[in-house]
Design goal:
Length: 306
């Protein structure tokens, strides 16, 4: 039995679908007010729980062998942002240990390396803002826990910026801007992206694999410039619009943090751990954009909420 924490989020929803396609039985933790359609359509048992409440976590953890932790609030979206990444994570680890769970797979981000260096990889972490510091602190706590206890076996998967269907940070703003005739992007160069189904694949392989506890893996699906990705998304979605870089008098509708990600243009070149993980990306730039196009053409009104 799997337990997915953060199952209703963008990446979490794709992990839910992936595990369902593998024939896995899962429970999904959600917060009050979350949208549960993905879990309902994937046969996932939804359990309302709070990472800061031991009692609700004990109930959620019953019968669980593998924990997938995708809880990743952004500062400002959740007043308990840092507590979720620290106290909440430790609560989840403690309850998983008490329940004798075998594996604990944590989703992190390449951004723990910070935005100071364009090429990322290796082991040097230099977070430059609150979100990155929260994710880096979570990794530190996981490392300490793995030194104290052999079970559950802990694996950290760090992914490049996720992009795919249902993405509200890059894809929907791009489509919404296209409807106004012009897509404006902040300056940025070639960078790494990850399709959320590739994240699901990596996390699944990490859960079933035999890598040492405390292992960390950096993953991506493909490299592209933001303009190239935006143009391919528009083509696959049947949209026609000018794609250009942001100037002094022209602004972008992308969320602030997404704009920072694009300017930083993190490029992952270290793929040395992929063989140990049993990972190879299934998605390319083309197949990612084709998937986005199919999703958008089924629900073209989706941009009305942007």
């Amino acid at each position: 039995m799997n337990l997915l924490v953060g199952a209703t989020g963008f990446v979490g929803g794709h992990v839910v679908e992936y595990l369902f396609q593998q024939g896995e039985i899962s429970k999904g933790v959600f917060r009050k007010g979350s949208h549960l359609k993905i879990m309902d359509t994937s046969g996932v048992m939804g359990i309302e729980a709070d990472l800061l409440d031991h009692h609700t976590l004990h109930e959620a953890m019953e019968g669980v062998d593998i924990v997938y932790n995708l809880a990743s609030p952004m500062p400002g979206d959740n007043e308990d942002f840092m507590k979720v990444n620290t106290e909440g994570l430790l609560n989840l680890l403690e309850v998983a240990t008490e329940a004798k769970a075998k594996a604990f797979v944590h989703l992190s981000t390449l951004e723990v390396f910070g935005f100071h260096s364009r090429t990322v990889g290796g082991s040097t972490s230099d977070p430059s803002n609150e979100y990155q510091r929260g994710k880096a602190e979570a990794e530190r706590l996981l490392e300490e826990f793995s030194k104290r206890s052999a079970e559950p076996r802990i694996t950290v998967v760090r992914a490049a910026k996720a992009v795919g269907s249902r993405d509200e940070s890059f894809v929907l703003p791009i489509l919404a801007m296209a409807e106004r005739g012009r897509v404006t992007l902040p300056g940025g160069s070639r960078m790494s992206f990850t399709h959320p189904k590739d994240i699901a694949l990596a996390m699944y392989r990490a859960a079933l694999g035999k890598t040492p506890t405390g292992s960390r893996f950096n993953i991506k699906s493909f490299d592209a410039t933001p303009e190239q990705l935006a143009s391919e998304i528009l083509a696959a979605s049947g949209k026609h619009a000018e794609v250009r870089r942001q100037g002094f008098l022209s602004g972008s509708s992308l969320p602030k943090y997404t704009a920072e990600q694009l300017r930083a243009a993190q490029l992952l070149e270290d793929e040395t751990g992929w063989k140990d993980l049993g990972y190879a990306p299934a998605y390319t730039l083309q197949s990612t954009c084709e998937e986005i196009g199919k999703w958008y053409l089924k629900s073209p009104w989706i941009t009305e909420s942007v």
